[in-house]
Design brief:
CATH topology of the largest domain: BirA Bifunctional Protein, domain 2
Strand order of the largest sheet: 11-15-16-20-19-18-17
Largest sheet: 7 strands, mixed
Mean pLDDT: 86
CATH architecture of the largest domain: 2-Layer Sandwich
Number of helices: 20
Distance between the termini: 56 Å
Structural class: alpha+beta
Strand content: 15-25%
C-alpha cells in the first residue's frame, strides 16, 4: 500500500493499544499539529485509524486569587481578627474588627458577604460575633486555590463557587487522539510505502515545470478546520447607525448629554410632580454624589412656578410639595428626554428658533423587571420637532415615514397619558416571528406646562422609541436578552441572519 509520506509517519507512530494525542505524534514525527490532524482524518476515511475527541477543561487563577494565596481570603482574615478581638466570646464592634483585619475597599464587602455564608459567625446591628466551632484552617475554597496553584485538581462544587467569585477562569479545549484500527495494523504488517506525492503547488514547481510530473495528494474538503469568527458590528450598534442615517436623511440633527443628570432636567422640567411614584428608588437609580449646583436660576424659578401654580389663566399646578433640594439630586436618566429639556431651554446649544429637528440614540436606565423585552438599561431613540401649528397628524406622519425605512408599515396607535405631553399616544408593531404586538415607543405634543418654563413659545412634538424593540421587529429576535446585556447569546450574534 502506498500512502502520502505524512500519513505513513502518523500510521507508524500510532498505537493500537493506547490512543496518542495529535500533539505527541507531531512532536515525534516533526510535523505541525494541524498537518498531523489532516493526515489523521484522511487515514480515518481509509479506515486505518480512529480519531478520538475529548474535552479538556483548563482552570487558571485570576490576579485576585493570587493575592489571596499570599494574604489569605478576606473572610478568613476577618474571622481571625474577630477571634483576636474576643468576638468568639461576645459581640465586638464591626469597625474595630475590620480595622484590625487590615481589609480595605472592596475587600471589606467581600469579607462580610462570605463571612456569614461560610458559618464563620454573625453580623448584626454593627457588631460581629465569631463562631468558636468555625474552621478557617480547613476552608475548602482556600484549599482549592492552593491545589490549583500546585497544578492539582479540586472539587467541582468548590470550583463553581470560585468561578462565581471570579477567582478562577475556566476554558475548554478539544483534544484529539489517534488509535490504530485492525485494518491499520494489518496494513502495517503487509507493508506501507510512502508515495512521492506533493501536498502544495509552489512557484518553483511552476517555474521549473516540475508540476507536470508531480503526483498531488487529494484535498479533503470534509476535513475539520478551525472556526474563525470574523469581527463585525454588534446588531444593536448596526441598527443604531441605520436609525441615525434615516433621521439625518429626514433633516434631524443629533444631540448628546450626560447619562447622570439632575432630577430637575430628568423629571421636573417634564412637569412630573416630585411625589410621582416613578420618581422613587423603585423605578430610577439615584447616585450618592453631591447635588448639582449649576442650574439656570430663571429656568428653575419658572419650572417651580409651573409645578406650584400651573401655567396660564386656568393653570393650577400640582397640589403637592416641590423642593429645590430634590430637583438638584443626581440620578441615572430614566429617559433621554432630559436631553430634549436641556436643548429646548437653551442650555445645550443656546437659544433655538423654529423650525428645529433634533434626535439622539443613547442609553437610559430604569429599575424594570427583566424579561424578554425589558432590561435595566436600554437605548432610546429620542426625537422632537419644533415648529408652528404642529398636530398629531404631523407626528403620525413622521412615524410612518420613519418606520417605512425599516419595512414596518402596520403601525398601531393607542392614546395614553404622560405628564409632559397632551395629546399622547403609544406606538405598537407586530413581531414578524411570534405575531405578538409589541410596544415600540411613546409620543405626544409637549404641554404648555413644560414648554413655557423653558421659554419656548411654539409647538414641539416629541417621542421616545425603543431601539431594541425596533431591532427585534427587523431581525425577528424574540428575546432581547439574547442580543444585549449580561446574558447575551454569542452564538446568536455570530450566526443569526438578519431578516428584512
Amino acid at each position: 500500500m502506498q500512502l502520502p509520506e505524512t500519513q505513513v509517519a502518523v500510521l507508524e507512530a500510532a498505537s493500537a493499544e493506547d490512543p496518542r494525542t495529535v500533539e505527541s505524534l507531531a512532536d515525534e514525527i516533526g510535523e505541525k499539529p494541524e498537518t498531523v490532524t489532516r493526515a489523521a482524518f484522511e487515514l480515518e476515511d481509509e479506515g486505518l485509524v480512529e480519531v478520538l475527541e475529548t474535552t479538556d477543561e483548563h482552570v487558571s487563577l485570576t490576579d485576585e486569587a493570587r493575592t489571596y494565596l499570599d494574604d489569605g481570603l478576606p473572610e478568613v482574615r476577618l474571622y481571625r481578627a474577630a477571634v483576636e478581638a474576643g468576638a468568639d466570646d461576645a459581640p465586638v464592634q464591626m469597625g474595630q474588627v475590620i480595622g484590625a483585619s487590615g481589609l480595605e475597599g472592596g475587600a471589606v464587602d467581600i469579607a462580610l458577604s462570605n463571612f456569614a455564608r461560610k458559618g464563620y459567625g454573625e453580623i448584626a446591628s454593627g457588631e460581629i460575633t465569631a463562631s468558636p466551632a468555625a474552621g478557617p484552617d480547613d476552608d475548602p475554597e482556600a484549599a482549592a486555590l492552593a491545589a490549583l496553584d500546585a497544578g492539582e485538581s479540586a472539587d467541582g462544587s468548590v470550583l463553581d463557587q470560585l468561578e462565581r467569585r471570579e477567582l478562577i477562569e475556566r476554558s475548554e479545549s478539544t483534544v484529539r487522539s489517534v488509535q490504530l484500527t485492525d485494518e491499520g495494523v494489518t496494513a502495517l504488517m503487509e507493508g506501507v510505502e510512502a508515495a512521492q506525492e506533493v501536498g502544495q503547488l509552489t512557484s518553483e514547481m511552476l517555474t521549473s515545470g516540475a508540476w507536470r510530473d508531480a503526483e498531488f495528494s487529494e484535498y479533503n474538503v470534509a476535513a475539520d478546520a478551525e472556526t474563525i469568527d470574523g469581527g463585525k458590528d454588534h446588531p444593536l450598534r448596526a441598527m443604531a447607525e441605520r436609525v441615525k442615517d434615516v433621521l439625518v436623511g429626514m433633516g434631524f440633527e443629533e444631540m448628546e448629554g450626560p447619562h447622570a443628570d439632575a432630577e430637575f432636567w430628568i423629571n421636573d422640567c417634564l412637569f412630573m410632580p416630585q411625589d410621582h411614584p416613578a420618581r422613587t428608588h423603585w423605578d430610577q437609580f439615584a447616585l450618592e454624589v453631591p447635588p448639582m449646583r449649576d442650574l439656570p436660576d430663571d429656568v428653575r424659578e419658572r419650572v417651580e412656578t409651573a409645578h406650584r401654580e400651573g401655567v396660564g389663566a386656568d393653570g393650577e399646578g400640582y397640589h403637592s410639595p416641590w423642593g429645590e433640594e430634590m430637583a438638584r439630586q443626581i440620578d441615572l436618566r430614566g429617559h433621554t428626554t432630559s436631553l430634549s429639556a436641556r436643548h429646548l431651554a437653551g442650555v445645550a446649544k443656546g437659544d433655538l428658533e423654529p423650525p428645529q429637528r433634533f434626535f439622539s440614540i443613547e442609553k437610559a436606565y430604569r429599575n424594570d423587571e427583566i424579561d424578554s423585552t425589558h432590561l435595566l438599561e436600554f437605548f432610546q431613540i429620542e426625537g422632537w420637532v419644533m415648529a408652528e401649528d404642529l398636530s398629531v397628524r404631523d407626528l403620525m406622519g413622521t412615524f410612518t415615514e420613519f418606520y417605512e425605512q425599516f419595512g414596518i408599515t402596520d403601525l398601531r396607535f393607542k392614546p395614553t397619558y404622560n405628564p409632559y405631553t397632551e395629546p399622547s399616544f403609544e406606538l405598537f408593531g407586530e413581531h414578524p416571528v411570534t405575531g405578538e404586538v409589541v410596544e415600540i415607543g411613546n409620543s405626544g405634543i409637549f404641554r404648555p406646562e413644560m414648554l413655557e418654563p423653558l421659554d419656548v413659545d411654539c409647538d414641539v412634538m416629541a417621542w421616545g422609541l425603543a431601539l431594541e424593540r425596533l431591532m427585534m421587529l427587523v431581525t425577528g429576535a424574540e428575546d432581547i436578552r439574547d442580543v444585549h446585556g449580561t446574558l447575551v447569546d454569542l452564538e446568536y450574534l455570530r450566526e443569526e441572519e438578519v431578516r428584512y
